[in-house]
Amino acid sequence: MKTIIAIAFNQIKTIFYDWKKLLLYAFIPIILLIFLSMGFSNLFEQGIYLEPFEVIVVNQDTHHLSSLLVYQIKEDKNLASLVNVTVLDGEEEAMELVRENQVVAAVIIPDGFINSLERGTNHSVKLITSLTQPVKAHMIRSIMESYMKSVSAGQSAVNTVWDYYIEMGMDSNERREKIENVINDITLRAYFVRGNTIQKKTIPGVNSIPPLVFYGVSIVLVIVMLSAISYGRQIIEDRKKG
């Protein structure tokens, strides 16, 4: 035990004897972290975030349920912090805005989209994205894939009910009248349930760490790094001499 204390005391004595090295260890990390703190100040104040970006929706379908679908997208609280949705009438205008990089994406709902669900066919929604903003475009593509999976599930339900009506011997007009009520019911259920199926999870970022703790730990790590470099060089020199 006495030997360990003597070695430790000798090391501390050596450090304080070389006062220039001690000043180097003390002030260089502080100066370095002052410059870093000036650059990272916004990170601690606001954190890492993605500003909301613009998306255009063009609804060419005259069916009232397509308007409800657009309304659902605009009023989605989970999307509101990420996407600003603007509804336009013209497809060409929307495509021009995407080409000019004024918006990230344009979503085109084709004419007859809801009626295609009634007939069991599929009129695909058109998605146009900007090539200059691939990350945001990929996010929009993922969101639309999620919505289209909901639409696909609804379409499967409609097809099942339609086949059931055929087996019941209903004529075409009767089936068409009843199937619209089914579509209304499925759409409204999806609208009210969707808020419960999407879970919002907040992950703590860098700005959740108190600046004093962050810079305190950083100073210690920088001092340890400089000490390791210095002693490593000293060991190499001792080996060369000995």
From TrEMBL:
Species per Swiss-Prot/TrEMBL record: Alkaliphilus peptidifermentans DSM 18978
Entry annotated with the keyword Membrane: yes
Pfam family, one: ABC2_membrane_3
Main subcellular location: membrane
Residue ranges of the TM segments: 22-44, 212-232
GO cellular component term, pick one: membrane
Matching Gene3D superfamilies: abc type-2 transporter like domain
Location within or outside the cell: Membrane
Ranges where the ABC-2 type transporter transmembrane domain occurs: 22-241
Molecular function GO terms recorded: ABC-type transporter activity
Keywords for the protein's UniProt record, in alphabetical order: Membrane, Transmembrane, Transmembrane helix
InterPro entries: ABC2_TM
Its membrane topology: Multi-pass membrane protein
Name of the protein described by the UniProt record: ABC-2 family transporter protein
